[in-house]
Amino acid sequence: MIALILRDLRLAVRSGGGFGLGLAFFLLVAVLVPLGVGPEPATLAKIAPGILWVGALLSCLLSLDRIFALDFEDGSLDLLATAPMPLEGVVAAKTLAHWLVTGLPLTLVAPVLAVLLNLPAQGYLWLVASLALGTPALSMIGVFGASLTVGLKRGGLLLSLLVLPLYVPTLIFGAEAVRRGAMGMAAGTPLLLMAGITAGSLALLPFAAAAAIRVNLR
Amino acid sequence: MSIWEYANPKKFMETSGKVLPWVAIPAAVLCAVGLIWGFFFTPEAENFGSTVKIIYLHVPAAMMAINVWLMMLVTSLVWIVRRHHVSALAAKAAAPIGLTMTLVALVTGALWGQPMWGTWWAWDPRLTSFLILTLFYLGYMALWAAVEEPDTAADLTGVLCIVGSVFALLSRYAVNFWNQGLHQGASLSLDARENVADVYWVPLVICIAGFVLMFVTLVLLRTRTEIRARRLSALLARERMA
């Protein structure tokens, strides 16, 4: 399992594209929004939590179709499916690798982008906490979507259509936690609810994703 | 006699063919009676004027939009557990109906909201959850359309339907948490103290019954079409082989 994670990490870092691309996209969103909305600090401070969360979500979406597609094409997914490790474990390892490559860097970069968007000072802690707790759910749900579309020729657009509705609860609770935190209100409730979604997804979705992969490899 | 007998496509075709007129005619009658009664023979409500009459389309469509998804969830589970093809095809057949009901509910709601709330659209929890439900229906149908192998498509959409149900439910409560609503509370229940007045209640219930039967009719029809399409493709495949 650790070998699989390391392999995925190495592939992501060396093959280029996937690793830096998500971060670059996140940066672009944070730069483009003020250009579109206007530079007023008050407006930006108000929309910063939502923009940062939507940006993180979209850049997470960007790298999803690569999770299984390459392995499916060169046949290594078949090998993984017949390996002694249960397919659920493979899915969990892939999720962890995807999170290490996208979710974790996004979480670390978010405070810097929050400066660009003029997020109030008390919001930073909540921003990092909510992204740290929420991005694993984004990766997990995304891996589930990717496993549904793995056999398809052009699954990319379909993948977004399948995954985005599933992202709704995480987005709502995550952005709400940051918004409340930034306004100096108690933000514990949405944060805990979001952590609940993350925990639930991590516990249950590997089974659904593994079932979908088995169907696709049949 | 058990319900699983109807998992046999032949048996299903026979029975559904016989049942169909007995559902279709009451559906048409109930819809006609409920809608005509509702539109022309109910008084205009105080403060609402004639806009209140949109309720006879809006409420049944909205109820069906949710119930159709529930029906798809049940049939998907039956397909995944017991591998009955009719069940998977019924889920496939129901999805476009559910999408239509969702859109009807959204459009009639917008038409009513414009004069009453002063806006076509508000990020009210129920509106938002219906918009999300629309996305779920679209994703489900897109997945059916994208996968060529029918059994694979049935399996994948089944898994999506089950996972989607959980997330749709989560979204509904998340949205409630996120914004306060403009909609009224429950006012059609049999046990509630404050309900819609009887003049409106009776035709509305007739409309709801009509919509339920209309849905049953459409699902039976569409499932029959799907079965025939499946038979046709099997015949064509056999011809190509020969």
Highest CATH level, the class of chain B: Mainly Alpha
Overall number of domains of chain A:
1
Helix and strand succession of chain B? HHHHHH
Distance N to C terminus of chain B: 39 Å
What CATH architecture label of chain B applies? Answer: Up-down Bundle
Label the structural class of chain A.
Answer: mainly alpha
- Which structural class matches the secondary elements of chain B? mainly alpha
Number of individual domains of chain B: 1
What percentage of amino acids of chain A are in beta strands?
under 5%
Assembly type of the shown chains? heterodimer
The name CATH uses for the topology of chain B is: Four Helix Bundle (Hemerythrin (Met), subunit A)
Let me know the average pLDDT of chain B: 86
Largest sheet of chain B: none
How many strands in all of chain B?
0
Give a brief rundown of this model.
Chain A contains nine helices and no strands. By secondary structure, chain A is mostly helical.
Describe this structure as you would to a colleague.
The complex is a heterodimer of chains A (218) and B (242). Chain A is mainly alpha-helical. Chain A has one domain. Chain A is built from 9 helices and no strands. Chain A is elongated. The two termini of chain A are 23 Å apart. The model of chain A has no long low-confidence stretch (mean pLDDT 88). Chain B is an all-alpha fold and 242 residues long. Chain B has one domain: Four Helix Bundle (Hemerythrin (Met), subunit A), CATH 1.20.120. Chain B starts with 8 loop residues before the first helix and ends with a helix.
Topology:
The complex is a heterodimer of chains A (218) and B (242).
Chain A: H1 2-14, H2 18-37, H3 41-62, H4 66-73, H5 76-82, H6 87-116, H7 124-148, H8 156-182, H9 188-217
Chain B: H1 9-40, H2 55-82, H3 85-117, H4 125-146, H5 150-178, H6 198-241
Helix pairs in contact in B: 1-6, 2-3, 2-5, 2-6, 3-4, 3-5, 3-6, 4-5
